Amino acid sequence: MSLSWEGEEEDARAARRSAAEKAALEAGRTGEPLTLGNEFSEIRVSRVETRNGLRLLIESTRSGQWVSLCPLELEAVTWQNTATFSAMIGRPFGPLLTEEES
User: Which distant-in-sequence residues (6+ apart) come within 8 Å of 22 by Cβ?
Assistant: First the structure.
C-alpha cells in the first residue's frame, strides 16, 4: 500500500523552492518585523532587500502563507476597492482570477 499521491514529488519540489526563496528573502530583512493582528488574523510585515531592490515580505503567522511585494505591487493595492478585498477574503488560499481569466 502506497502512502503517496499523484504529484507528490512535484509538490515536494515546489515546497523546497518556496522555502529556499523565503529563506533568501529573510536573509535580506532590514529592521525589526512588525506584527499586526486581531481576532481573525495575524501577520508579520518585514522590509527586505533583494538584488532587484526593496520588497515587503508579508507572512501569515497562523497559516504560514507569505508573499513578497515590490513597490509597484504595493501601489496596486491602493487602487483597489472594498469589493476586491471582499472577493479575496471570500476565496482564501486561491487566486482571484483563474488561469483562463488571466
Answer: 57, 66
Residue type, 98: T
Is 85 inside a domain boundary?
Answer: yes
Q: Map residue 77 onto helix, strand or coil.
A: helix
- The length of the chain in residues reads 102
Instruction: Determine the residue type at 19.
Output: A
pLDDT at residue 1 is higher than 60: no
Q: Which residues form the domain of 54?
A: 32-92
Confidence of residue 21 (pLDDT cuts 50, 70, 90): very high
* Residue 71 placed within a domain: yes
pTM value is 0.83
Q: Is residue 7 part of a domain?
A: no
Q: How far apart are CA 74 and CA 96, in angstroms?
A: 17
Q: Side chain identity at 12, as an amino acid letter?
A: A
CA distance 16 to 22: 10
Residue 41 maps to a domain: yes
